[in-house]
Design a protein that fits this description.
Layout: H1 17-24, H2 31-63, H3 68-117, H4 120-125, H5 128-170, H6 172-219, H7 221-226, H8 230-282, H9 288-329, E1 351-361, E2 364-374, E3 379-384, H10 390-397, E4 405-410, E5 413-414, H11 420-424, E6 427-430, H12 441-446, H13 454-464, H14 467-472, H15 490-504, E7 508-512, H16 520-534, E8 538-542, H17 546-550, E9 554-559, E10 562-567, H18 569-575, H19 578-591, H20 594-600
Parallel strand pairs: 3-8, 3-9, 6-7, 7-8
Antiparallel strand pairs: 1-2, 1-4, 4-5, 9-10
Length: 616
């Protein structure tokens, strides 16, 4: 399986401060909660240093000073501050949890909302797994960074700052020694940070490919097993996961190497303080409690820097995730409303394609100077080989794409002057492969018009010919369809899709090979529903079934993006051209097979056979 030729944006190895700033902006909507969280963290961090300072006074003034009254005062103060610290710990943990959920919810809502606005072309070139990773796992990591990552960072900065302050009040010479070590530790941290970030960027990129491969394999499980592709798929999946393993392994290696490097430097610092502090004590320059406090403060400083191995690993992972999530949010829809776009109130009138040129790839035009006029209420059938441009014509009509050159007018007005909603809400689309959403049959039909009553849903199903099979189910309209409609047959899904289109009451109708992959009995039901739906509506039908094509007002034979034949079924047969070749080669024999005619009904097999639109 390929990766859809998907080229993901490459991110540089440089630390991106802009990304961190955008992550921080996620807190803007929760100022009060964020401030409470930061104050609680600051108090808890400050208490740690105060406790050490009080411990120094307990040793020097209470124990060594043999002053029981002072000792009791200090112990009571220590206990009271512990109560304050406990309350603040509860507050910051609670705030971090709530804040994380807010950020997670807000990000996912932003991403999902933005995905709804993106043009169809974005979904054509972007793997589903990549988008799922952005919305789910990446938003999780960003939320963790904003809460627990922020906690670790603030805690580390305050620990170092308060430790240096209290050390300076005890002995400035020893403090100077410690201050000289800090830049060395920060340099080492920065060096490791760059390498960890590079590997996690590669990890997030590869993880998207792995997720996409998962998604594709699960959706195509039946095809994979029927073709015996299990071993080949496993080999390709191993290659992707091996690449993911290597990038994660390197990130873990750098993270593991960082911690002992910091510990080694910290050991030299503690040894130097113990040696110089001992000399100061014998000279009367520092008390025994002061030395104990000093070593504790060094631990306070070294611990956050040591913990940076973990903090940096999670931070770089989150930044790599954020870069990709923000790249999605920064993607601009290719199809947008013009500033002066209006809702015309109706799409009635003739449709005209005027010298329309369109391509997906600039070097491979699909339509070139294409011209077509469709009268209001006319039914047009499009016939042609795969890749001839049939689906492109209806995609342009629905404005899923826009012409590269030329214009499409509806009722004499350029349809680019209409809002997207004005066009797409008035066009009913029934696809070859119908898509149903998890839920009940009633909910799936009502998707065509969310405010429709139950009676309207039932009436739409009756018009589409779906009511009979629905009522035969145990739960009727409340029966679950399963994920993607897996609990129903293709024909049943198509009938529900047709009922959904009926309920939406479209002004224009697009039927994209809606009966090409179902049995002939189900086709008869769908055909009757289509006929009711297409009455007095302008309709475009991409058809393989002769029964559908014969009823069209006009049949257009499309080849290489051009109309090579145009007329009714009878006119095109008399013409004796491309359409005639398709008809005679594929239907002559079937039309005289009485047994099949009796089986399929009075209309005969010619009404129900499949028109394979491949070049003669």
């Amino acid at each position: 399986m390929s990766d859809f030729n998907f080229e993901e944006e490459e991110f540089t190895s440089q630390f991106n401060g802009g990304t961190l700033l955008r992550i921080g902006k996620q807190l803007k909507a929760h100022k009060r909660l964020t401030i409470t969280f930061l104050i609680a963290v600051a108090i808890v961090s400050l208490m740690e240093s105060v406790f050490t300072y009080i411990g120094r006074m307990i040793i020097d003034q209470g124990i060594l000073g043999r002053n029981p009254t002072r000792l009791v005062e200090l112990v009571v103060t220590y206990g009271a501050l512990i109560v304050v610290q406990v309350v603040c710990v509860f507050i910051f943990i609670y705030c971090a949890g709530i804040l994380g959920e807010h950020i997670r919810y807000g990000l996912r809502k932003q991403l999902f909302s933005h995905l709804q606005k993106l043009s169809l072309s974005y979904y054509d070139r972007t793997p589903v797994g990549w988008m799922m990773s952005r919305v789910m796992s990446d938003s999780e990591r960003i939320a963790d960074l904003v809460t627990w990552g922020l906690l670790d960072t603030v805690w580390a900065i305050l620990n170092i700052a308060t430790a240096l302050f209290f050390m300076a009040t005890i002995n400035w010479q020893l403090t100077l020694i410690v201050a000289l070590i800090v830049p060395v530790l920060l340099y080492i941290a920065a060096w490791f940070k760059q390498r960890i970030l590079m590997e996690y960027r590669e990890s997030r990129k590869t993880n998207s490919l792995v997720t996409a491969s998962y998604n594709e394999t699960l959706n195509g499980a039946r095809v994979i097993q029927s073709l015996g592709r299990q071993d080949e798929n496993l080999r390709e999946f191993r290659e992707k996961t091996a690449r993911l393993y290597r990038s994660n392994y390197k990130a873990a290696w750098f993270s593991a190497l960082f911690l002992p490097s910091v510990q080694l430097i910290a050991a030299f610092a503690v040894g130097g303080i113990a040696l110089y502090g001992g000399w100061q004590y014998t000279a009367g320059g520092i008390s025994l409690g002061g030395i104990q406090a000093f070593i504790t403060y060094i631990t306070f400083m070294i611990w956050p820097i040591q913990d940076m191995a973990r903090v940096y690993a999670s931070m770089q992972h989150a930044i790599a995730s954020a870069e990709r999530s923000f790249s999605l949010l920064d993607t601009k829809p290719e199809i947008v409303n013009r500033k002066d776009a209006v809702d015309p109130g109706t799409l009635s009138g003739d449709i005209h394609f005027d010298n329309v040129t369109f391509y997906y790839d600039e070097n491979k035009p699909v339509l070139t100077d294409f011209n077509l006029t469709v009268k209001s209420g006319e039914m047009i059938a499009l016939v042609g080989a795969t890749g001839s441009g049939k689906s492109t014509i209806v995609n342009l009509l629905c404005r899923f794409y826009e012409p590269k050159r030329g214009a499409i007018t509806i009722g004499g007005r350029d349809y680019l002057s209409f809002t997207l909603d004005a066009i797409q809400s008035r066009i009913g689309v029934v696809l070859q492969t119908p898509h149903l959403f998890s839920g009940t049959i009633r909910e799936n039909i009502r998707y065509g018009r969310l405010n429709a009553t139950d009676a309207a849903v039932v009436e739409a199903a009756k018009v589409a010919g779906a009511d009979e099979f629905i009522m035969a189910l145990d739960k009727g309209y409340d029966a679950e369809v399963g994920e993607g409609g897996i609990l129903l047959s293709v024909g049943q899904k198509q009938l529900i899709s047709l009922a959904r289109a009926v309920l939406s009451e479209p002004e224009l109708l697009v039927m994209d090979e809606a009966t090409s992959s179902i049995d002939t009995l189900t086709e008869a039901l769908i055909q009757r529903g289509m006929e009711r739906l297409m009455q007095e509506r302008t309709s475009f039908v991409i058809a393989h079934r002769l029964s559908t094509i014969k009823r069209a007002d006009r049949i257009l034979v499309i080849d290489a993006g051009r109309i090579i034949e145009n007329g009714t079924h009878a006119e095109l047969l008399r013409l004796g051209g491309h359409y005639y070749d398709l008809y005679t080669k594929q239907f002559r024999r079937e039309m005289f097979e009485d047994a099949e005619q009796d089986f399929f009904g009075a209309d005969g097999v010619a009404e129900n056979a499949t028109l394979e639109t491949t070049p003669a």
